[in-house]
Amino acid sequence: MDSVVAELPAGQEIHVILDNLSTHKRNEDWLARHNGRIHFHFTPTSASWLNLVEVWFGMLTRKTLRGASFASRQELRAAIEAYIATTNANPKPFIWRKRDVKGAQLRNTIVNLCK
Who has the most CB within 10 Å: 64, 70, 100, 105? Predict the structure, then answer.
């Protein structure tokens, strides 16, 4: 972040979107050193679907890694690279869909958002 901030004009506000990982939340001192021009916004807990890289890793896991067994890191790497090559050969945009949320899930999400 220091190098990103250094490249931008001194008066420009910076808004950064982060997931809710606890290590991202211990930043008050760093933010204070930047005089309020940098703002961190956190995605809600249990909302990984908002982060498209999480969607991509989920697809990689479901289509390539789950249930697989690799004898070496090289085999794992080859499987991941094959998945990337296949998806890049015929790219498709992500389409967000609204999914049904059950009562307990909704309660947990609301509780997490209120924290």
Answer: 64
